[in-house]
Amino acid sequence: MKSKASASLMGMLIGAVVMLSSCGFYSFSGTSIPLEVKTFSVSFFENNASINSPLLSQTLTEGLKQKFISETNMSITEKEGDFDFSGEITNFTVSPASAQSSDVATLNRLTIVANVKLVCKSDPKLSFEQSFSNFKDFDATQDFNAVENELVEEISDMLIQSIFNKAAINW
């Protein structure tokens, strides 16, 4: 009796898997990218912010490439992929995030903003142009130059996740 129930359950699971995989979207990685989207390209993200962090453009560009390589079945191409990303860094600012009663900042905030454009030739509804922004607070007593690389890495990771969510998960 148990084996019939197990076989029936297994049959239902296999049927569900077949139905999900035939919907025309990648599904097991959590993405909802149409199957016809097989390649992607990422143009270099120029840093057009008034303050220029030397590693930011490279970190953001290469991080976005790595995210799509590791979390999708898409292949990277130099130009004009089925998903074609381009963009620029538009803001890189350090500002006070909180103050004590003496109006002295206890925390500073690094904010990075990137404008991203995605062109999807096979499904223009997936195309977008949007500004993505993230920040990280740090102790105001710390020398910014000492923590800048770590902050840029952390904020870039958050930006990349937001861009990935918008493009691949439709959030």
Overview of the molecule:
It is a single chain. The chain has 171 residues and is α/β, with parallel strands linked by helices. The chain folds into two domains: 1-30; 37-169, Lipoprotein like domain (Double Stranded RNA Binding Domain), CATH 3.30.160. Helix content is 36%, strand content 31%. The protein contains three helices and six strands. It has helices at 2-21, 56-71, 144-169; strands at 39-42, 46-47, 75-76, 83-99, 105-120, 128-139. Strands 1, 2, 3, 4, 5 and 6 form a six-stranded mixed beta sheet that branches. A hairpin with a 7-residue loop joins strand 5 (105-120) and strand 6. Helix 2 (56-71) packs parallel to helix 3 (144-169). The N and C termini lie far apart (45 Å). Mean pLDDT is 82; it is low at 5-29.
- CATH H-level superfamily title of the largest domain: Lipoprotein like domain
- Helix content range of the residues, please? 25-40%
Number of strands: 6
Question: Which consecutive residue ranges, at least 5 long each, have pLDDT under 50?
Answer: 5-29
Overall mean pLDDT score?
Answer: 82
The biggest sheet amounts to: 6 strands, mixed
N-to-C order of helices and strands = HEEHEEEEH
Q: β content, as a range? A: 25-35%
**Straight-line distance between termini:** 45 Å
Instruction: Describe the global form.
Output: elongated
Q: Total number of helical segments?
A: 3
> Could you state the oligomeric state of the chains shown?
single chain
Kindly provide the name of the CATH class of the largest domain.
Alpha Beta
The CATH architecture of the largest domain is: 2-Layer Sandwich
The class by helix and strand makeup works out as alpha/beta
In total, how many domains does the architecture comprise? 2
